[in-house]
Write a structure and sequence with these properties.
This protein has 131 residues and is mostly beta strands. The protein contains no helices and nine strands. The chain has an eight-stranded antiparallel barrel with strand order 1-2-3-4-9-8-7-6.
């Protein structure tokens, strides 16, 4: 299935330079006031955009972002995330698997896997390039 994916370079005053990786997600919890609405499931990647070789890198899940944030580029003012945001990629990618614990997607001819690492923290995931 095709889903929107966004990569933003974020030079935050407190967190420093990192990359935000976001995926289109529709709320399926019928008890949520957001039921049926699209949001962006989001991860902060502190060291790289995406793995270039065999390495595994940390991807910290952050709160879902509003759907309107998918096109944001500019400066965030005082408060959480203050700093500059530059769009690196905004488009549809092939997603093979998408749930709370794992995402498998294709980007620029490479297949990547994001998977939950309960042994770190509840918000910790790792991302790796698959063969």
């Amino acid at each position: 299935m095709k889903k929107l994916m966004v990569i933003q370079e974020h030079d935050a005053v407190k967190a420093g330079l990192h990359w935000d990786l976001r995926f289109e997600k529709t709320h399926t919890d019928k008890n949520s006031p957001l039921y049926g609405e699209k949001v962006l499931r989001s991860f902060a990647i502190p060291k790289h955009k995406l793995p270039e070789g065999k390495e595994r890198i940390l991807a910290v899940q952050v709160g879902d972002h509003a759907w309107s944030y998918r096109n944001f580029e500019g400066n965030l003012g005082p408060g959480y995330g203050r700093g500059s945001v530059k769009m690196v990629f905004n488009g549809k990618v092939e997603v093979e698997h998408f749930d709370d614990k794992k995402i498998i997607f294709e980007y620029e001819g490479n297949k990547y896997q994001i998977y939950k690492c309960d042994w770190l923290t509840e918000h910790s995931f790792m991302i790796r390039r698959k063969k």
